Amino acid sequence: MIEVLESLVLSLADDELLIGHRHAEWIGLGPILEEDIAFASIAQDETGHAQAYYQLLTDIGLRTPDEYAFRREPSAFRSAHLVELPNFEYDYGLALMRHFLYDAAEQVRLEALRQSCYEPLAGLACRLLREEKYHWMHAQLWIKRLGCSTEEAHSRLQSALNQLLPYAWMLFEELPNEEEIVAAGWMPPSTELHRQWIARITPILEEAHLSLSPPRPDQLLPLQGARRGARSPYFEELYAEMTEVVASDPEAEW
Amino acid sequence: MYGNLTIRPEDIENWGKKVQEEDPEKLAQFEARIARGEKIEPHDWMPFEYRRQLIRLIEQHAHSEIIGALPEGTWITRAPNFRRKLALMAKVQDEVGHAQLLYSAAETLGKSREEMINDLLSGKSKYSNVFNYPAQTWADTAVIAWLVDAGAIINQTTNSKGSYGPYIRALERICWEESFHLKYGYDSVVYLATGTPRQRAMLQDALNRWWRPIMHFFGPPDTQSVHTEKLIKWKVKLATNDEMRQQFLDMYVPKIWELGLTIPDPYLRKNPETGRWEYSDPDWDEFWRVINGDGPCNKERLAVRRFAEEKGRWVREAIRLPSARYVTPLA
Predict the structure, then answer these.
(1) CA distance B153 to B177
(2) What one-character-per-residue DSSP string does A206-254 give?
(3) Which of B70, B198, B327 comes nearest A141 by C-beta?
(4) From CA A115, how far away is CA A109, in angstroms rounded?
(5) Of A137, B127, B184, B328, which has the most beta carbons under 10 Å away?
(6) Which of A37, A65, A92 minimises the CB distance to B315?
(7) How far apart are CA B206 and CA B198, in angstroms?
(8) How far is A221 from chain B (nearest CA, A)?
(9) pLDDT at residue B18, as a whole number
(10) In Å, what is the CA distance from A232 to each residue of A20, A165, A218, B92?
């Protein structure tokens, strides 16, 4: 059962770690200083959330947060492909849309986890939601603001949504051992969270005049298996960068 | 993080003329206020030259903060553990926040943030030379966070005793945050200095690379600096470059030696008779070459800023659109 818990927590933690990594890439490159600062702040929160999730595993005798994040074999990561996607050419529309889709999912997950029968997870979810609230405010404010502004901004957001939606959809891919997770009362079924997520994003996208059309099965197929260890083509480079310093002197303390 | 205001000869050319054009009575009152230690606020009368030099000073400082975010920023995604990663993110975020504060302070003098950024991108307006050098390894980020931030604190603490209200209020907050950066930098340096042979070598190499830019950080020697009496009288500039450099050496050379590191200057010593540090010429020609655009990273730094400016244009246009629907903040 401990492996089941570990795989659940890793899927939550790895998403946070890598979205934090990607958001941090915006420091110094945002469209206005205030957005550099906002993305830096959100990146710090998400990275801190990852650390707190890994710590739940440390507390039951598994590895430390630093070992999980910086010294784990790449095949043991359980992140969704959405968070592994690079910032490509620093398209703020894509970055903002990913932030919006991801933080909506995080809200839904955390709200559900507050009721988790695994008490340490429930306690942590309550704590993280306090920070998460501000990410969500930031994301929806900007989606509405840009969606209702120029034609260019609107069309950039629409194409970002079209591009990212299949990836975001797969945040809710069924987890390995999901039956056991649900039976233990640790987390509700992924399909239920997915439904809540759609309900959360739809009204805001409507206000921003953005249209959501569910991804086709052929768009989802290549993205399957992330929670079972199938990494995206972008992961290898990200991992090499994230572990570069640690790998340069594996015996060292930093 | 910021070094000292560098005054170029061409900035001084029209100096006397401008001052003579000011109303002598108002000028005398203004100077008396500064002499009494009063602060000048945005709506107060001030000489043209005071305004011009302050804009230049604060603008250079603000640019230094955003450009300064770049060399360290690239190491956030490579930081070796959670503790360092979170601290470095917070530090670099602070630097961008300082730019935001400083651009606002400069705006009170009548130049918009947009104009200032345009002048940065065109090369008209300068930023601290130290950021035209690359951060090659993790140890470089530790040396920057410790010693460059230490230099910045010396400079900024000095400037915070200046005469212009909005600038000194920004500096007080900035210095408070910088003092955490210095603690973070020193802690990172100590781990490297007491770590594995590879870590120690990495640290020594980084210090060797950064020593000269750090010596340059406070600006050219007083003998080479153009005349700054007026700026000192108006409390725009509060200490000479050499005074600040001496203060830095006094505070940090012993700490560097204490960690078993060597400083790449065989002539560096404190003269027991004068009580002043002596050092070899840190190649002031290089300093002027870098300030005039020919440093190792000048082109890259500005290219990154231009790239960000270009990429973000559509966002700025969208939020400026007068017909854009106002979205009520949720907080």
Answers:
(1) 10
(2) HHTT----PPPHHHHGGGTTGGGT---TTHHHHHHHHTHHHHHSTT---
(3) B327
(4) 11
(5) B127
(6) A92
(7) 12
(8) 30
(9) 55
(10) 17, 16, 16, 29
pLDDT reported for residue B228: 73
CA pair distance A143, A123, nearest whole angstrom = 30
Longest Cα pair distance anywhere in chain B, in angstroms?
71
Q: Name which of B73, B315, B325 is nearest A27 (Cβ-Cβ).
A: B73
Within 13 Å of residue B16, how many CA atoms lie on the same side as its CB?
Answer: 2
pLDDT category, B224, cuts 50, 70, 90? confident
Q: Give the start-to-end residue ranges of the domains of chain A.
A: 2-248
Beta carbons within 8 Å of A123's beta carbon, 6+ residues apart? none
**pTM (2 decimals)?**
0.94
User: How confident is the model over B139-174, as pLDDT tens digits?
Assistant: 999 999 999 999 999 999 999 999 999 999 999 999
Using DSSP's 3-state secondary structure scheme, residue B180 falls into helix
Nearest to A254 among B80, B100, B317 (CB): B80
Give the pair of three-digit tokens for residue B48: 């043209």
Q: CA–CA distance from A221 to each of A216, A225, B126 (Å)?
A: 9, 9, 52
User: Which tokens is A144 given?
Assistant: 């509405």
Could you give the percent of chain B with pLDDT greater than 70? 90
Q: What is the DSSP string of A130-158?
A: HHHHHHHHHHHHHHHHHHTS-HHHHHHHH
Report ipTM (2 d.p.).
0.97
Q: In chain A, which residues have their Cβ closer than 8 Å to the Cβ of B315?
A: 31-32, 35, 92, 146, 153
Residue entry with tokens 């990200």: A238
- Please tell me the distance from the alpha carbon of residue A91 to that of residue B308, in angstroms, as a whole number: 10
DSSP state letter for B281: -
Residues in B closer than 8 angstroms to A251, CB to CB, are 196
Q: What distance in Å separates residue B209's CA from the closest CA in chain A?
A: 19
Domain covering B47-308 assigned CATH 1.20.1260.10 in the classification: yes
Among A residues 118-147, those touching chain B with beta carbons less than 8 Å apart: 137, 140-141, 144-146
On the 0-12 / 13-18 / 19+ scale of CB atoms within 10 A, B123 is exposed
Which chain A residues are Cβ-neighbours of B327 within 8 angstroms? Answer: 141, 144-145, 148
One-letter amino acid for residue B243 of the chain: E
CATH number (1.10.260.40, 1.20.1260.10, 3.40.50.170, 3.40.50.300) of A2-248 reads 1.20.1260.10
Those residues with Cβ within 8 angstroms of residue A10's Cβ, 6 or more apart along the chain or in another chain: A57, A68, A76, A77, A78
The verdict on a CB contact (< 8 Å) between B308 and A30 is: yes
**Chain A residues lying within 8 Å of B191, measured CB to CB:** 253-254
Give yes or no for B124 touching A (CB within 8 A): no
The residue type of A160 is A
